[in-house]
Design goal:
Layout lengths: L1 E3 L2 E5 L9 E6 L5 H10 L4 E6 L11 H17 L4 E4 L2 H14 L4 E3 L5 H7 L4 E6 L1 H5 L1 H10 L4 E6 L3 H6 L6 H16 L4 E4 L8 H8 L4 E3 L2 H13 L1
Parallel strand pairs: 3-4, 3-5, 5-6, 7-8, 7-9, 9-10
Antiparallel strand pairs: 1-2, 2-4
The structure holds D-glutamic acid.
């Protein structure tokens, strides 16, 4: 990987006749969960990645700060020649994707969607738990997605307090992670959730710990693969 300021060139284009330059950004390294899902489907795009560590975590920042960081990250990726930009962060998608689309009309943006729809079709108990940041829950996108797909099911919201920090510090499989995740997830199980939606791109890195706590009867839904498919559709246009 080549470092360009805070931008990493994740994968070099192997086919010089192709011109796809795809940029990704998140508050930290964890939008890489989406990059990896994309690389499984496409191995000839040039990928740039911005990890905005100075402002991590986004989840507890005021909306105007998240919007400004989204602008700055987008401009850095445009400077590298990216014409498709993936907001690989649920929090930044919720706070800023509408603004980005308006301010940078020449760029195709792909954002993260809370995976309520697949959860609603999978749940047998009729209770779905969503794990996300505070800012994501406050956003219009989450409310609208819930209103659209949650009829007949109960959706429980839980902020993954401390999850982002654990992942950024590489402690995702530690005892500390087990305790911190249990505190957030156990109340969802007590209320009957049999399906958990990972509504933050940091959380897939805690999947092993979450699964160990919830057991095999509870499914965990990570939207990265669906987002990767959407990137492909956008590139094909
Ligand atoms: N990974 C991000 C998300 O998907 C942001 C987490 C944070 O920085 O608080 O929401």
């Amino acid at each position: 990987m080549t470092a360009i300021n805070n931008i990493e060139l994740v994968s070099k284009n192997k086919n010089p006749s192709l011109v796809h330059r795809v940029g990704f950004f998140d508050s930290g390294i964890d939008g890489l969960s989406v990059v990896h899902a994309f690389q499984k489907l496409c191995d000839d795009a040039e990928i740039f990645y911005v990890a905005d560590w100075t402002y991590c975590p986004y989840g507890d920042k005021p909306i105007n700060v998240i919007q400004e960081r989204a602008r700055v990250n987008t401009k850095s990726l445009i400077e590298q020649g990216c014409t498709t930009i993936v907001v690989a962060c649920n929090t930044a998608t919720a706070a800023a994707i509408d603004i980005l689309r308006k301010e940078f009309p020449e760029i195709s943006f792909v954002g993260m969607e809370p995976a309520i729809k697949p959860a609603a079709s999978q749940t047998k108990s009729g209770v779905v738990g969503v794990l996300a940041t505070n800012a994501t829950f406050k956003g219009r996108l989450f409310r609208e997605t819930c209103a659209k797909y949650s009829s007949g099911i109960e959706v429980l919201e839980a902020v993954g307090e401390g999850f982002v920090e654990l992942v950024e510090q590489g402690k995702e499989n530690s005892e500390e992670a087990f305790e911190c995740v249990s505190k957030v997830v156990q109340p969802l199980l007590n209320k009957g959730a049999d399906c958990l939606v990972l509504g933050c791109t940091h959380y897939p890195f805690l999947k092993k710990t979450i699964q160990a706590i919830v057991g095999s009867n509870v499914s965990i839904i990570d939207p990265s693969d669906a987002v990767a498919q959407q990137i492909i559709r956008v590139l094909q246009k």
